[in-house]
Amino acid sequence: MILLQKFLLRLTLIAFISQSMFLTTYGDTIVSTEGNINFDSNNDDANEMQINSTGLGVHMSNPSANLHVGGNAIISNQLVVGGTNNTSNSTLHVNGTIGYSVQSLNAGGNVISSSIVLADTSSGNASLILPKLSDSIGMQIIIKRTSLLNDIILSGGGGNIEGDSSKLIGSGNLAYFTLINTGTEWVYLNNSEAQLTYTISSSNIFLWWALEETSGNSISDKSGFGRGGNLTNSHLFSGNSVIGPLSNGLSLDDGQDTAIYSDGSIPNNAYTYALWTKINFGSEDTILNEPEINGSAGFVWASGNTLFHRSAFHKLSSGNYVTTQLNSTLSANTWYHIAATYDGTNLSLYLNGIYESGNTAASWASSTNIILTNPGLKDNTVANTDELKVYDKALLASEIHVIFGAGSP
After folding, report:
1. pTM surpassing 0.90?
2. Average pLDDT over residues 398-406
3. For 204-406, CATH number?
4. I need a surface site. Which of 84, 90, 112, 275 has the fewest CB within 10 A?
């Protein structure tokens, strides 16, 4: 009697399980009689696959097509879309049309996320940032400008565009062009007009710190010349990484925090340095701790000494300093692009891609280090920095404008 009860109980459980799954078995064939079939392969109550009356969903509940994939799909052989025959014997054969998403971008900073981009520059310059090289190998992008006014500034998303870090497509044309990510850089497949008026050769870049790291104290150099650096004062990227105009940036929250390159070899005849910076005090706020002026060239956010106040400084071989001051004041908690150039005779200062002031300098006492530091205007000063670039020549005003446009927030 006990054995019979166990047998009946087992039959009942089997019947209950079979009924709850709505499955009926005929020989080796399983037929769904009603409802959906859900597959939870790792028993986490989240379906990895579902079959319903519409179709098959992979990583997708309630598929809305015969095959609905919620993620990446890899086809290891041939794929035919819209028909049953692969008449071209191609890896992908489409019987019908292909539709692409179109991204319309306006003036200001824009990250490209579509295969076709319409750039409207009617209200101002448009800064277009291509997807990161590592995330989009093989991707093709078509860019078409829809206004004759203003410029397009194109940057390579952490890589070069045919050897240049940025390109500027000037006003006065309706150019279009196609780019493809080769895995090492972006290259042009075609362009309607030779309108890429300003470029910055990667051969002139000396050091490029994107400051995208999120851990450790080592700084990588994206120039390709291996001029990385280190954070000092036990400062780490972890907990000090901030969102900058392009991607991650670095926060320095102590007057002793620095980022330093100290291999001894830096440009000694001409230079350009450019970076994005944001400080939690304005340049005209009260200064509690006077920043120390040292080194052969640099920029001072604020100083009680009018010679150095919001100025680029340049040390002559005599040991004296020459400076040139911004005409504009700097507000707290605002990203600014600062750039300074020296061509052997002239010192020039730029703010947000625009020339502000200049001075003459007959010589330069070149140094051996490149240092980013917290200016320490007050005890609780926080200085954020992004995209430090150093060149071994004095860039033109148009080239400074391209660098600024590539990260314009």
Report:
1. no
2. 80
3. 2.60.120.200
4. 84
